[in-house]
Amino acid sequence: MNKKRLKEQVETIRQAFGYITRFRGQTFVIKLDSALFGNAYFPILIKDLVLLHQMGIRIVLVPGAKQRIDQILATYNIKTHTVKGVRISPPDAVSYIKMAAFDVCNKLMTLLAENDTHAIIGNWVKARAIGVRDGVDFLSSGTVESLQTDIVRRTLDQGQIPIFPNIGWNAKGKPYNISSNELALALGRELGAAKLFFITGFGGISGRKTRVPPGVYVSSDGTISQMTVTQAGGFLDINASSRQSTALELVSLAYEACRGGIPRVHIVDGRVEGMVLKEIFSNRGFGTMIYANQHENVRPMVPADIPEVLRIMEPSVGEAALVPRTAGQLEKDLEAFAVYEVDGTIHGCGALHAFPGKTGEIAGLAIDQAYANLGSGARIVSYLIEKASTLKLKKLFVLTTQTWDWFASLGFTPGTLNDLPAEKKKAYNRKRKSRVLTYSISPRRTKRPSVVE
Ligand SMILES: CC(C)(COP(=O)(O)OP(=O)(O)OC[C@H]1O[C@@H](n2cnc3c(N)ncnc32)[C@H](O)[C@@H]1OP(=O)(O)O)[C@@H](O)C(=O)NCCC(=O)NCCS
Question: Mind listing the domains of the chain with CATH numbers?
């Protein structure tokens, strides 16, 4: 194997380990499109999900059943129709819909069993009828009323994978056909999921078939690679008059999800081998990611912030975690620094210094001790990475004496003095013995922030 390829592979493995540490113990809710069940790669996709489960990620599966329902209803010659994307089914169709919903769950369970993984199919969804809307009676179609999240959490604690059929029951046990997309969203919100996946049979959101708001990045294959929740709102507005499509429905669900506290929603193509793993374990995603505005509270430093920034840095300087800086130095470095502000008070700071050779240094990072462990440090780093992307930097480094584990959890990997720009290498303080960590910025998805979860 040539050296370049080997280095790339090692880099990928390191990146993956960084992400594993970050996601262990977190919940991912995964909706699987019904069209995927017949795909040749489907068993491989399930194997990939099992890998996530084995890594300690808490997986919740919501299989879609649309195609299977269509097949079964056609077999028994039962007619249904759809209004605004909702299937309206007469009462005698419900038992067949249930049969189809459980059939896809069973298929999933069998594939999980083939991978020595335990799963439980449950009746944990309380539903109610959609009822009559605008004169249309939605008959046996229902909507999610509540979820028995306590049982689901216990199931996850026991290392099992809960599988949710797209059926909900009312208090009297009457079953309703519910939307698996809506169910996945409700689960993501109620379980405090770190990620919600819509694994589709058509790919991410196409920027060619939809109108794209300014500032949204479209990759060379035409896929919208990511949108902030604000951009997603803009996307929905400018496409409001378009014909209702699954893509628009998914962006709308993702928008609601991010506003409801789920940090990231991924819309990925389940027909392509390894897509889900690539989306999670590299800073080059391949689907569409919609994410909450995590940088809301981070902004460039202004002169009036300097006394507060010095105060926040002081304890870390005392512990030799940071090199001392003066007000004058900070004033000179105004452009490099960003601060984390909540309700008019500064809680943290950090800097990005650009060097020749498209390299940048993250430095001067400190969080007010009273606000530690709230994710502010990670948010500042994420902001600085995004800033580095905008400046077209390719690689970042950080010199640290006490926080390498923390930077590693954000995707940084160990480096050497040779990773430093010449002037930095020359000025390296050998007594201080700081460790070098580096972070590669993906050339394709430069705008993708990848450190805050
Ligand atoms: C490092 C620092 C910026 C982290 O800020 P923060 O806002 O508290 O960090 P986050 O909330 O994003 O992350 C907190 C997590 O990181 C862990 N963590 C914090 N400092 C760590 C360290 N030095 N090594 C390893 N893990 C650390 C916390 O235990 C917490 O873990 P948990 O999520 O499992 O509970 C902050 O502790 C700090 O100001 N340190 C002193 C200054 C410093 O060392 N700066 C770096 C100079 S390069």
Answer: 23-291 (3.40.1160.10), 298-440 (3.40.630.30)
